[in-house]
Amino acid sequence: MARIAIDMDGVMADTTQQYINWYAERYGVQVDKATLYGQPETSGFPHGKEVIRGFLYEPGFFRTKPVIKDSQEVIKALYDKHEVFIVSAAMEFPNSLPEKLEWLEEFYPFIGWQNIVFCGSKTIVQADYMIDDHVKNLQPFKGEALMFTAPHNVNITDFKRVNSWEEVGALLL
């Protein structure tokens, strides 16, 4: 049985699609996800990254993110076979902690509160695997780091990459 730490934003919850959805709703402009590949997170939108970063402070942003395809089924299978912890930075943005908890309760009701870790820095995380989309979380990790593909990290080659939950399942189940 392996201990697996799984990030939420960009791994379970589709943050990029949420930026696109909220931007379209507010500015009437539909941004193609493909145009965001290789750009820093929150960049690539016509009004600039300050507008997109502003969404992170708005009520509902974290609560209404779309679920990433196949994540529920694969995480449930991992949870049944391994020791799984959801590890998410939830201290920087005022609404993120309660909204992330509500989101998890709705979409991943099988994950008990004992297996949810909200933190500021993930440098304290000890596990066999960490699935995350950010270099800053994977670099200090002592176990096997798995980079979950997101538009902002497509050019990073320092970590073993997983492009989908189907790939995660093939690797860890």
TrEMBL record:
<dbReference type="GO" id="GO:0008253">
    <property type="term" value="F:5'-nucleotidase activity"/>
</dbReference>
<dbReference type="Pfam" id="PF06941">
    <property type="entry name" value="NT5C"/>
</dbReference>
<dbReference type="GO" id="GO:0009223">
    <property type="term" value="P:pyrimidine deoxyribonucleotide catabolic process"/>
</dbReference>
<protein>
    <submittedName>
        <fullName>5'(3')-deoxyribonucleotidase</fullName>
    </submittedName>
</protein>
<dbReference type="InterPro" id="IPR036412">
    <property type="entry name" value="HAD-like_sf"/>
</dbReference>
<comment type="similarity">
    <text>Belongs to the 5'(3')-deoxyribonucleotidase family.</text>
</comment>
<dbReference type="InterPro" id="IPR010708">
    <property type="entry name" value="5'(3')-deoxyribonucleotidase"/>
</dbReference>
<feature type="active site" description="Nucleophile">
    <location>
        <position position="7"/>
    </location>
</feature>
<dbReference type="InterPro" id="IPR023214">
    <property type="entry name" value="HAD_sf"/>
</dbReference>
<feature type="active site" description="Proton donor">
    <location>
        <position position="9"/>
    </location>
</feature>
